Amino acid sequence: MTDHKVVGRGSGRPPVSSCSGARRSTPGSATMANSAPGGANDYNAKIVEEFRANQGRVGGPWAGTPLILIHHVGAKSGVERVLPVGCFPQGGGRFAIVASNGGSPTHPDWYHNLKANPRINVEVGAQTFAVLAEELEGAARAELWPKLVAEVPQLGGYQARITRQIPVFMLTRQD
After folding, report:
1. What pTM did the predictor assign?
2. pLDDT tens sequence across 73-84
3. Are the C-beta atoms of 68 and 124 separated by less than 8 Å?
4. Three-class SS string for the chain?
5. Distance from C-alpha of 114 to C-alpha of 71, rounded to nearest angstrom
6. Which CATH number fits domain 5-173: 2.30.110.10, 2.60.120.560, 1.10.3720.10, 1.10.10.60?
7. Domain boundaries, given as residue ranges, for the chain
8. Any residues with CB less than 8 A from the CB of 65 and at least 6 apart, and which?
9. How far is CA 108 from CA 22, 50, 99, 119, 142, in A?
10. Sorting pLDDT into bands at 50, 70 and 90, what band is 54?
11. Quick check: 18 and 12 in contact, CB under 8 A?
């Protein structure tokens, strides 16, 4: 496996939401905004390392919360980054992720990266595979959103306090 830059920027919260019906600590998919020592880079790097060492399982505040590692390419920089976020498996090699940014009024940086470069790799458990990331809109989002909020009620709270619609992406396995 090649080395990847592990980064995260967002609302001051660690990566969140989850990848199955397991316990969900804090919904969303925000990351720490601080990239100084001990900030998002270090925090996320430790999660990525633990994820890879334990076939997708991590401890601490994320114990019991399955995560997915997204390999996204910077829209402006072209640099590949690896970010732990949560997901909601939808069956058939599909995973929903939510760009809540912890209820911030702005989208997380990775949102823009997925829009610019939607063909990415992800790590789920011990597997790495290609996916196509598509933002759900209209009826597709309207049908899935209430199910996500039922699983993680805090998502509804985030949406209620901001004016932007929280994006939902469907990651569909391509191999």
Report:
1. 0.80
2. 999 999 999 999
3. yes
4. CCCCEECCCCCCCCCCCCCCCCCCCCCCCCCCCCCCCCCHHHHHHHHHHHHHHCCCCCCHHHCCCCEEEEEEECCCCCCEEEEEEECEEEECCEEEEECCHHHCCCCCHHHHHHHHCCEEEEEECCEEEEEEEEECCHHHHHHHHHHHHHHCCHHHHHHHHCCCCCCEEEEEECC
5. 10
6. 2.30.110.10
7. 5-173
8. 18, 19, 22, 23, 24, 25, 58, 86
9. 24, 23, 6, 18, 21
10. very high
11. no
**Length reported for the chain:** 175
